[in-house]
Amino acid sequence: MIEIVSSARCVACDLCIKVCPTDVFERGADGIPVIARQDDCQTCFMCEVYCPTDALYVAPLGDPAPPDSPHTDEDALVQRGELGAYRAAVGWGRGRAPGASLDKNYLFTQDAPAREQR
Amino acid sequence: MSTGDALEADVLVLGGGPAGAWAALSAAESGARVVLADKGYCGTSGATASGGNNLWHLPPGPRRDEAILARQHKGAHLTDAGWMDRVLDTTYRRVGELADWGYPFPHHDGVQRRSSVQGPEYMRRMRRRVHRAGVRILDHHPALELLADSDGVVSGAAGLARQREHRPWRVSARAVVIATGGCAFLSGGFGTNVDTGDGLLIAAEAGAELSGMEFSTAYALSPKWGVHTKGLMLQFASYYDERGTLLDLPAGVPPRQAAALLLARGQRVFARLDRAPRHLRAAMREAQPNYFLPLEKAGVDVFTQTYPLRLVYEGTVRGSGGLRVLTEDCATTVPGLFAAGDAATRELVTGAISGGGSHNGAWAISSGTFAGRGAAGFARRRGRPERGLAPLGRAGLRPTGPHTLTPKEVVAAAQEHILPPHRSYLRAGVALRASRVSLEGLWRETTTGLSGTGRDRLRARQAASLVAHARWITAAALARAESRGMHRRTDLPQRNPALDHRILTGGLDEVWTRPDPVLPVLLPARDEERAS
């Protein structure tokens, strides 16, 4: 679930509010989005993909992270470069090749040497 | 015109995933004025944007007949060869257009590989295309009900604007396409919580029929703590128990299915991708970043460490049941109402098994194209809808008694009958009959006492939709007194040739089932061909 909106990085563009398919965010008084409905988060990473400043962190958990969890420690996560990781994987952002152009699914599906398909 | 007001369109598309986007685009290409309303955001909403799609994508030629024959066999003989052919053809053409518009398909050996699309890239481009075609996109505009004229012809929809103080909206239209996705019962699987089957509820209130609702038992494997149900890479997995002992899985069943069966029976199962060849590991990451990244975030190296699995229900999103389509342009049995994508039955192209992993993705493209064109044609032939259209919404919206139930209570009560693997992964007549009785009571309570205000208006509708789905699913699962494809009855483990037909269901206060009089259309099996 979404755990962190980094106010140090956020530029208050509100794109995450717009693109979140389950409407988890609300605009805060200072323009920085707040996580208003964490229970509605479906951990789809779409906000991470769209965030232009890598200000968001979505934990890989289906439930809210406990308070002492490494998934709520913004400084440590920033240091390890974990904010915006999915945006990098998808290949969005300046200077990146779109991940779609590197897509290797064809190696693993019906036409490929590997068999079992999803 | 601002939201909260009334809009007018030739075609209204409900849902902004791939099926809705292709439907809106196709209707606009046919000259219709189109409005697309999505519950979330067209571009991120739904299972495809989050998960991506492999596509059932084949060039013209003999491989298509082979593919049709293979799927009719795997799909347990409920498919339709004519539909499959049209879907292959339309998907191939449309994916070609996607490439022409600049979608960055990968190259391999000098050839573009077009059998897979990455979710965010695909849907961002589809949104842009839909927008450029002149379609009016309404994000965060969930539909709550359909509108009909005095002849019962569907003539629009009404809903609420989620990011504008839940103000009401209303679009009057000459035709409506339902592309709202399947129903995963708010199980939490990534990307599927928008899929609460709202479109089937509102269509059923207009009298639409459903098909294949027994094929709603799709589950996928995710990390125990997580929601990421990407399974393709598990083709390289070995499975272990909690002591780290390699599980001795039965032969003759794909290992992933055998592991799922153990989980459904309550055992703990762990996975490690130790069968992944080293030279493929980088390519694996590039193919499925949304499998690897969540595990890496959790500190798991899948090649060297085991991690615990769980089953996540995916219902009709990865199953095959949905609105019955009557004609080649995806018209439903209700005039003015068309269906596309996971909201429509996919039995025609995938039969009794999951269409996940290629067929559903192709179906979204092609059925969206058929439905969009069909709706535009219907709109052209029809006059402008009269004023004073009737709103059709009932359960959760217009309760017949005092407010006694919250959406949360109703969701939990409906989930209990569907989500647990011992209910759906493995079905049994006794449990289904017990569910049928409880769900009758739950439906009566829902129609009497469920409602909400503001955001809870939508939640109440979603809750009502889950109860309606639980009833259709239970009725269809009882009517299919056999095991076939993903429908596994522990009390009736064999396939029954007398049930070589699709099963229709529908109704709200009275749920009914009956055999589909339109029989599957099958190609002659190869052995028979050789013999003749």
Automatic annotation (TrEMBL), chain A:
In the UniProt record, does the keyword Signal occur? no
Molecular function terms, GO-annotated: 4 iron, 4 sulfur cluster binding; metal ion binding
Instruction: Cite the Gene3D superfamilies for this sequence.
Output: 3.30.70.20
PROSITE patterns (UniProt xref): 4FE4S_FER_1, 4FE4S_FER_2
Top-level division of the source organism's lineage: Bacteria
- The residues covered by the 4Fe-4S ferredoxin-type domain are 1-30, 31-61
For this UniProt record, the keywords arranged alphabetically read as follows:
4Fe-4S, Iron, Iron-sulfur, Metal-binding
Question: What InterPro entries does the database record attribute to this sequence?
Answer: 4Fe4S_Fe-S-bd, 4Fe4S_Fe_S_CS, Fe-S_Ferredoxin
Does the UniProt entry include the keyword Transmembrane? no
Protein's recorded name: Ferredoxin family protein
Organism of origin: Prauserella cavernicola
Native organism taxonomy: Bacteria, Bacillati, Actinomycetota, Actinomycetes, Pseudonocardiales
From TrEMBL, chain B:
Fumarate reductase/succinate dehydrogenase flavoprotein-like C-terminal domain residues are 456-496
Q: Does the keyword Transmembrane helix apply?
A: no
Listed A to Z, the keywords are:
FAD, Flavoprotein, Oxidoreductase
Catalyzed chemical reaction(s): L-aspartate + O2 = iminosuccinate + H2O2
InterPro entries named among the record's database cross-references: FAD-dep_OxRdtase_2_FAD-bd, FAD/NAD-bd_sf, Fum_R/Succ_DH_flav-like_C_sf, Fum_Rdtase/Succ_DH_flav-like_C, NadB
Q: Which GO terms describe its biological process?
A: 'de novo' NAD+ biosynthetic process from L-aspartate
Q: Which cofactor does it need?
A: FAD
- Supply one GO molecular-function term: L-aspartate oxidase activity
Span of domain FAD-dependent oxidoreductase 2 FAD-binding: 10-216
Q: What does this protein do?
A: Catalyzes the oxidation of L-aspartate to iminoaspartate, the first step in the de novo biosynthesis of NAD(+).
Q: What is this protein called?
A: L-aspartate oxidase
| Organism, scientific name | Prauserella cavernicola
